[in-house]
Amino acid sequence: MIIEKYRAKSLVREQKNSTAVHLNPYQGCYHDCVYCDGKAENYHMHEDFGTRIRVKENAPELLEEYLRKRGFLPVNRDRTGTLADYTGEKAHIHNAGGERFTIGISGGVCDIYQPAEEEVRMSRQMLQMVYDYGFPVFLLTKNKLVLRDLDLLKRINDFAGATVCLTVVFSVENEHLREIFEPRASTISERFQALEILHNAGINTGIWMLPILPWIGDDDDNLESMVKSAAEACVQFILPGGMTLKPGRQKRQFLGVIGEYFPELLDKYARLFGNDHRYGHMDEAVVKEFGIFDWYPKMERLCGKYNVRMESW
Known about the structure:
With 313 residues, this protein is of the alpha/beta class.
């Protein structure tokens, strides 16, 4: 793994009609999950996505600059007696700058708690900035390393609220599948243990169950075991999602692994995504032809059975 630091020009991504902003201080991900669409060319990531991790070393500065430009001031930071405090009581009023929104430090493409974080500690720096300014936070990862920052998450949660989600697509019984598709991520047991610890600390938790892999992760036993484990870990919600496979690098690498470990499925996957849809959607005609299991109603029933809220996109 190569860690490469650089100074970025931008960090925060806003979405229309959203009560949250999103950011990620990393480019590239050492987890290098086989199905990850972060490898797709439309994200403009470097070729050695899974081995060279680029870190925005000025990410905390960019976040603070973003917040101050919008009129927010630090409310949980010790005063230094300098102009940097925006001296005066206003700097310590919780509603300075207007209504606060959720700051999403998320790993939708590049995991914020991938192994590089142990050395760089950039996600922790971002959390500290979130706490300093009194904002709620949302985290997404598939690494137990998030527990390292439990002390800071508890402070954020007590002040403004914190939600931590872990991605889980295979049951504990299917750890061998995790080793194929997520070889460098935390084990399934470690993720459920992390969720339970977070819940016991008062943190709101959830599971992103995506992508659900056709013929591999969509069978009844795998889905029910995951929902049951989620309920035992007291997660508040599950967000399931289907598989996308974008033409180009992502598709080539994924089909290569399917050919190596599941050769009997290679032709099916090649046909299922043979339409080369821009956003990686399945060919609906092939879906009907193969009679692919519709996991959505099954997930609704399972979440009802185990009393776990099911979210949808």
